[in-house]
Amino acid sequence: MSFSTEDDARAAITAWQQEPPFAQRKNIQLAIESLELSQMYYEQKSNDRGAARAGRCIALLRARLAELAADQ
Asked: CA–CA separation, 71 vs 50, rounded Å?
């Protein structure tokens, strides 16, 4: 799944909440890795807005990972 905005990240988190926690963690980890690559790309291209947007999406996904860890 690709993320263009924070709303996309929120929608993915909502969709993944229907899955078991281990599947949620896996999907979130993969999304974070993809977003980190996107963020590096944006930084190389001096696209500060794109890099910041990717960073905000990463923060949302990491927050959900923290929630999952707290529930265990």
From this structure: 32
User: What token pair was written down for 13?
Assistant: 């988190």
Is residue 48 exposed (0-12), middle (13-18) or buried (19+ Cβ within 10 Å)?
Answer: exposed
Tens digit of each residue's pLDDT (9 = 90 or more) over 15-35: 999 999 999 999 999 999 999
Task: Report pTM.
Answer: 0.94
According to DSSP, residue 19 is labeled: S
End-to-end CA distance of the chain: 26
Contact between 51 and 43 (Cβ < 8 Å): yes
